[in-house]
Every structure is written in structure tokens, then in C-alpha cells.
Amino acid sequence: xxxxxxxxxxKLFLEIFKHLYKFYGPQYWWPAKTKxxxxxxxxxxxxxxxxxxxxxxxxLKKYNLISADKLYKIKVDKLxxxxxxxxxxxxxxxxxKNFINFLFNQYQGSLHKMFxxxxxxxxxxxxxxxxxxxxxxxxxxxxxxSRPIFVVDxxxxxxxxxxxxxxxxxSYQDIQSKFMGHLKHxxxxxxxxxxxxxxxxxxxxRKKPNCxxxxxxxxxxxxxxxxx
DNA sequence: CACCAGGCAAGTA
DNA sequence: TACTTGCATGGT
Length: 228
Prior knowledge:
By secondary structure, the chain is mainly α. The chain is globular, with a radius of gyration of 19 Å.
């Protein structure tokens, strides 16, 4: 029985996860109490440091606004003022409203009802909401709906393309398919893996890489070029 | 001061 | 399809 190329890559993708997990430990994502809080957080952290999104969430909690009914009733301008620390606050207020309106129009405001939908159906529904792109939709599927969906983000593209495990021009779908093709479809694995990639990105593999702090240097080596 | 963060949509060619 | 730009606060 010969070892196929794809089997070797299966092992490599899992090895990378194991190294990251051993080095950084479990990340316990998503850091939120309720499903709705995960969804709001996913929107507020778009292209924004989590620490800033967290401040916005804290403001909402102060007025007990992490509630579908409350968010349905609140004026969009009032909401925008409360989530100011998360940046892009006018746009994000509309996006949160778009989701909440969708939830009421399609599921009578019930997340429980929304989560009855199958993965593919739910994903398409979420993507139809203005302001929810693939990463946000998949984050909701993975961390709020507990579905085994791999979330791809800017760090994933940067890190894995630097090491030629994906191509720089691969689409979101291409990258997601690659990870999901190589790994067991497991919600915990996918959840931790994505979180660990973000942790690696924040610590060692930003736009300017710091390979001396990279826990993967022994299996991946240094990327040949330090370009984006 | 410059740079970047757990994106997305709309506009242009 | 493949770029480019606006959106904005807060940390390093």
C-alpha cells in the first residue's frame, strides 16, 4: 500500500494543529455566554481587534441588549452609538439590525427555530443577509450553531499561502474545501484550529512575520519570502 | 507618527 | 471576474 500525496497532506494539516494546540493550549472559542452573543460578536469583530468588539459587547450588556426582542426594538442610531468602540459602527449597527430583522421575518425571532435548518440551507440564508459574508456566516455556523464548518480568515490565507500549502489566488471556498478535505469534520477540532491560527497570526505571523516566535518553524521552516 | 485588527459591499473596468 | 475604495475605533 503506497502512501498517497493527499494522505501526507492530511497528516501535515493535523500535525500543524497538534503543534499549535500543544504550544498555545485550548482557546475556548467562542468567548461568549449565549448563542446570540456569538452572532453579535461575529459581526462586531469584522476587521477589528476582538478587544474593541468586546468593549462594544460590554456596552450592550450594560443595558441588557443582548436580546433579540431588545435589538429588534432599538433604533439603529442608538445602537450605533453603543457599539462605537468596535469601529465601522454605523455599518455594523445596520448589519446587526439586518440579522435581527431576518431572524424575525424568517423565524419569529427564534434562534432555536433558525438552528433547525440544515447546514447548507442555513449558510445560504445567512449569506443572503447584507453584512454577513462567508467568514461571518461560517463563524456563526461553527461557534453558535455548533456545525463542523471550517472558518477561513485573513491569517489562514496569509500563513498557509506563505508556506505553499494553499495558493495565493485560492478563493475562500478553495481554502475551506482544502481544510475540510484534509481533516475530520469535528466541531471542536475546527473551532480550536481556527482560533489557534488567529493566535499564531497575532503572535508570530502578521504582515511582518516574526519567525523566531513561530511554534511551527520546526515542521514548516521559514517562509522563503516575507511578502504579505 | 505609521501600521494594523478574527470583513463586507459597492463601484469600476 | 478581478481589482479598488469606504467604513472607524483603539492598541502597539
